[in-house]
Amino acid sequence: MTEDELAGLAESQKTGVLQRAKAGDEAAFRELIDVYQRQVINTAWRMLGRLDDAQDAGQEVFLRLFRSLRKLTSEDAIRPWLYRVTVNVCRSARKRGVREPVAMEETYDPPSGDCGPEEAAETAQRMRWMMRALARLPEKERTALVLREIEGLSTKEVAEILDSSETTVRSQISVARTKLRKMASAEGRE
Amino acid sequence: MTCEDCRAWLALDEDSAELADHVKGCEECRRFEAGLAADRAVLAAMREPPADAYAAVRARALAEARRGRTRRVWPWVAAAACVLAAVAGVVFRAPLREPVRPEPVLFAVNPPVGWNVVPVAKRRARRKAPAVLSEPLRIEIQTADPNVVVIWLVDREKGTS
Ligand SMILES: [Zn+2]
Q1: How far is Cα A129 from Cα A127, in angstroms, rounded to an integer?
Q2: Residue A2 and residue B13: Cα distance in Å, rounded?
Q3: What residues pair up with B150 in beta bridges, in sequence order?
Q4: Which end of chain B is flanked by fewer CB atoms within 10 Å, N or C?
Q5: What ipTM does the predicted assembly reach?
Q6: Could you tell me the distance, in angstroms and rounded to a whole number, from the CA of residue B20 to the centre of ligand 1?
Q7: Which tens digits make up the pLDDT trace of B126-157?
Q8: Angle ∠(A34,A35,A36) on CA atoms, nearest 5
């Protein structure tokens, strides 16, 4: 979680945003979206490969959140619940025939840190390659890798979200990493 | 340790003296290890969607939620209206109905010898003349939306609208 998200979460917990959202307070529901939109849209984007598909998935995920507010007993439960629902929505989207992930040709602004333009271009180029490589992984391996390496969850958290065992998740991730390396070697990248 | 074993362990984030020894002496596996680290760094940097990806999702989700709330309210309004109409129907129909008279109970007894028994035709229940029709009953149901009022007109004779 980024510092902004943590700060946002702390703020929302202070004021009982979940309780207010349950009571039908639209501003509270909007706060929930603001706190969790990064995790939802980013996860969907990396799973589906296209930003517009990820936005559709994100809309569906937040609608499900709205409908399930009553079921959520604590604010701690929201984050894992949203990851789980995001994964499910993306899987259904795939089954419905959402387009195959493509090379990330869509607009992408590399994070403008303290690096120069050349370095930023290099980073963006590496990310584009990674999106293409992720798209070539089987769905289960891609999902485990996205949650573990991109979203930074622990193996245990990933296993819980995917209703799987830690052993299975570790194995999926190691297989995925090895495949990425093989793709890179085959393309002459290291 | 073979290179294959070494890479499998490396991909599992395992760490051991034996592994370290192999990597130290094997350039291929060192490159593999560096590649894993590079991939991890790239993936870790992929945490942010473009900043302009959020607004549309938020707006659409809020609009859908609003619509969903309206949709959730309407079935209840409709159900409540049906119940009210049914109750109104029963209440306002009841007095107009022919009061239920208990059927006469007949005991079958053998008539005394010598009596001449003649069957009697059943009497038809007489209908009361229809009551004078009054104005239909008007039921107004307020909804969540102040601009929408459900108006139910109940015909007092038939109990329907
Ligand atoms: Zn080796």
Answers
A1: 5
A2: 24
A3: B141
A4: N
A5: 0.88
A6: 11
A7: 555 554 555 666 666 666 666 666 666 666 55
A8: 95
Q: What amino acid occupies position A36? A: Y
Q: Does residue A56 carry a pLDDT above 60?
A: yes
Q: Give yes or no for a contact between B68 and A63, defined as CB atoms under 8 angstroms apart.
A: yes
A97 with A133, same domain: the answer is no
How far, in whole angstroms, is CA B89 from its chain's centroid?
A: 27
Tell me if B45 and A175 make a contact (CB, 8 A cut-off). Answer: no
Q: B-contacting residues of A 28-67, CB under 8 Å? A: 29-30, 33-34, 37-38, 41-42, 45-46, 51, 54-55, 58-59, 62-63, 66-67
Domain assignment of residue A32, given as a range = 1-101
Of A133, A144, A132, A136, the residue nearest A106 (C-alpha): A132
Residue B159 phi, psi dihedral angles, 5° rounding: 75, 15
d(CA A150, ligand 1 centre) in Å: 28
Residue pair A158/A148 in contact (Cβ under 8 Å)? The answer is yes
Same-domain check for residues A85 and A127: no
Domain presence at residue B123: no
Predicted TM-score (pTM) of the model is 0.70
List pLDDT tens digits, range A2-34. 777 776 666 655 559 999 999 999 999 999 999
Min Cα separation A172/chain B (Å): 10
Q: How many domains does chain B have?
A: 3
Q: The domain containing residue B149 runs over which residues?
A: 103-116+133-161
What's the rounded mean pLDDT across residues A144-152?
A: 98
